[in-house]
Design goal:
heterodimer, A: 353 residues, mainly alpha, 74% helix, flat, B: 324 residues
């Protein structure tokens, strides 16, 4: 057995550089730097977990006074009046879930459709057919056009997510609301007995908020669903075509069921986004403390309540708002953790095929 | 020959085949096959269904893209009218005042993104290095990865609530630093996940060659992995910056807003309320004055152009990424 001093002498001997030698083992300083760097990376990585814990604790601690005072009845209360010190967030919880679910419906309908359009390569196919008619499909410039257009389309849909939400809010306020108002009021006038149309759209309201929200979550759904569809092994598609299935029999019978977990995970993550989305809703939903199913009525959401009330809140209102923030945090964390788990499972399953 | 079958059996088999082929040649092999049934025809419900659904999907994708062009068109049309050199150099106008601009908001946005990037970039990239280097079964690595994924969906308003509690209440006032820290929480997960991806994409042979030459793992990271993965990492940084530039909710009650330059009073002070483009758009969009609303559209145009440029830089960088 070599003693510790012998080992360290041998290591130093190996670390000395001899003339003409190309390689060189790390010096003592380099070894020290290596250990320090690796530990630094470890600490930074651990900080990410610490950050989430601190976020939850910070908001939770600040909410304790309000929790003691109002307890669970806060969740069921319908009134928010800082003069009477009565607070309840049932309308906000309802508004958050209602707008998010409606937006999720439109968002996933169009998002999955766009994902199918992208993963099937419809655009490239059409352009290629056109090029073949013009005998340009092998041209060095025009021949690459189908591929480049496909890439452009994918980027355009991703750009939908790049537009800041406050800009969507501005657009919704000055373009969408005036545009849909006559139609909504016509619906209210003729079908006012139907609960969804039971009020008229006088300005901001649920429908414009939902429309803008679904545009905002569409890119998330499209990107994740497209990845899931592309990950379906080519042999499954070929087998379906080989059995004589048409394109849509293949899509509905083979591709969508195989990619369903990934698509579902994407939809859950988009739901999380919609629940937490703030600015577009704060500008478009109308900021009214109302419990309603009417699409044209103003309402409120948790995030919009925080954005609108926090800047002017008095000292006694801050803990109450922190309590509302804690509720929002709990809902979104729950949905996001569930979505991330579903996607992880889906990835594991996709590898197994 | 390795054929185990006895020779006579084989002979008779091939003879039988030849007989059958001769018999088949005498009559039409496709007799009784109705070719019109095999052709692609829109009159058959199966194919019609497929074509109709294809058309619907095409239509829906085009519909989904309309908002993008509608927003861009409105920004150029309404924002472009107001755009001039003055809006970049002047301070926001008071109500009923004409003219004015949002020079201080542009500076404020850049400063707060700078503060956030200063914290996030080292933290995020080194975490990405750790995740890419960690062995597959590492519990900590999968926990960190999972936290980062959960953080991507963290509501931006809650980042503001956190920074309000942790910075504004502690330091006693709204400040650019509080805004920067709120933005940092939103930028971190993007940078972590894209750096991990970019580093994992570096061909294994490059890493192994470096270790084979006697490099320590820190040297491998600094001299081989990071330089090779740099385009991918920068793409992630650009995406995170683009997202942070447009964020409003976390700044509403951390950086608040200011009608003055950040150097007001003669000295540069990060611990005072700071204007940002996003909050300016929000505040001015709700005002009943025509001048303010027009400025909000111009600010939105500037913000979107800024975000799109950062995004495009990120996308062009990602094309330079080395693929394994």
């Amino acid at each position: 057995m070599a003693s510790a001093s012998e080992i360290s002498r041998a290591r130093d001997e190996a670390a000395t550089w001899h003339p003409g030698q190309v390689w060189q083992p790390p010096s003592r300083g380099q070894r020290w730097f290596d250990v320090a760097f690796r530990n630094l990376c470890l600490v930074f990585a651990a900080l990410t977990i610490v950050l989430i814990v601190v976020l939850v604790i910070e908001i939770g601690l600040k909410a304790i006074p309000a929790f003691r005072e109002y307890g669970l009845s806060f969740l069921g209360g319908r009134l928010w009046d800082s003069n009477k010190q009565t607070y309840g967030i049932l309308p906000e919880i309802w508004g958050t879930l209602y707008t998010s679910l409606l937006a999720l419906f439109f968002g996933s309908l169009f998002g999955v459709a766009a994902a199918i359009f992208l993963s099937e390569g419809y655009l490239g196919e059409a352009v290629f057919k056109l090029l073949t008619k013009m005998h340009l499909q092998l041209h060095p410039f025009w021949g690459t056009l189908p591929q480049r257009l496909e890439g452009l389309l994918k980027n355009l849909i991703e750009l939908l997510a790049a537009v800041p939400s406050v800009v969507y809010g501005l657009w919704g306020l000055f373009v969408v609301i005036p545009l849909i108002r006559p139609f909504c009021n016509w619906l209210h006038g003729h079908f006012g007995w139907f609960p969804l149309f039971s009020t008229d759209l006088s300005g901001p309201g649920i429908l414009p908020a939902v429309l803008v929200l679904s545009i905002m979550i569409l890119p998330t759904i499209t990107a994740i669903s497209r990845n899931a569809l592309v990950a379906v092994p080519q042999k499954l598609r070929m087998a379906a075509y080989g059995l004589g299935a048409t394109r849509w029999e293949t899509i509905l019978g083979v591709l969508l069921p195989t990619a369903s977990r990934g698509i579902f995970g994407g939809i859950v993550l988009a739901f999380g986004r919609a629940l937490g989305e703030t600015m577009a809703l704060a500008m478009l939903v109308g900021n009214a403390n109302r419990l309603t199913v009417s699409l044209f009525s103003p309402a409120n959401t948790l995030a919009a309540l925080l954005a609108n009330t926090f800047p002017e809140a008095g000292a006694h209102e801050i803990p109450v708002l922190m309590y509302a923030a804690l509720v929002l945090l709990a809902i979104t964390l729950l949905v996001n953790v569930f979505g991330a788990l579903v996607l992880e499972r889906a990835a594991a399953k996709a590898e197994a095929i | 020959m390795s054929d185990p079958r006895p020779v006579p059996a084989k002979k008779s088999g091939s003879e039988a085949l030849r007989h059958r082929a001769e018999a088949a040649a005498e009559q039409d092999p496709f007799a009784g096959v109705d070719f019109s049934k095999l052709e692609h025809s829109l009159y058959r419900p199966r194919t019609l269904f497929s074509v109709v659904l294809s058309l619907i999907v095409t239509l829906m994708t085009m519909l989904a893209l309309i908002p993008l062009f509608a927003v861009l068109w409105m920004l150029i049309w309404r924002g472009g009218q107001k755009l001039s050199l003055a809006v970049f150099t002047h301070l926001p106008p008071a109500p009923l005042e004409q003219g004015g601009g949002f020079g201080n908001a542009i500076i404020g946005t850049l400063i707060m993104i700078g503060i956030a990037s200063l914290i996030t970039v080292p933290l995020g990239i080194l975490t990405g290095v750790y995740l890419a280097q960690a062995p597959g079964e590492s519990r900590l690595a999968s926990a960190v990865r999972f936290s980062a994924k959960v953080l991507t969906g963290f509501p931006s308003i809650l980042a503001g609530v956190f920074a309000y509690g942790a910075i504004v209440l502690v330091t006693g006032g709204y400040s650019a630093v509080a805004g920067g820290i709120a933005l940092f929480i939103l930028m971190l997960p993007t940078i972590i996940l894209t750096s991990e991806n970019a580093i994992a994409m570096v061909p294994a042979k490059m890493k192994e060659a470096s270790i084979g030459m006697g490099a320590t793992s820190a040297q491998t990271v600094w001299m081989v992995l990071l330089p090779t993965a740099m385009p991918g990492i920068l793409t992630g940084v650009m995406l995170a910056v683009a997202r942070a530039a447009g964020e409003t909710a976390p700044l509403l009650f951390t950086a608040l807003f200011s009608n003055y330059w950040i150097t007001s009073g003669g000295h540069f002070n990060l611990m005072q309320p700071t204007a940002s483009l996003a909050v300016l758009i929000y505040n001015f969009s709700g005002m009943p004055f025509k001048n303010q609303v027009e400025l909000a559209w111009a600010a939105a145009l500037v913000l979107v152009v800024l975000v799109l440029i950062i995004n495009l830089i990120g996308q062009s960088l990602s094309r330079q990424q080395v693929q394994s």
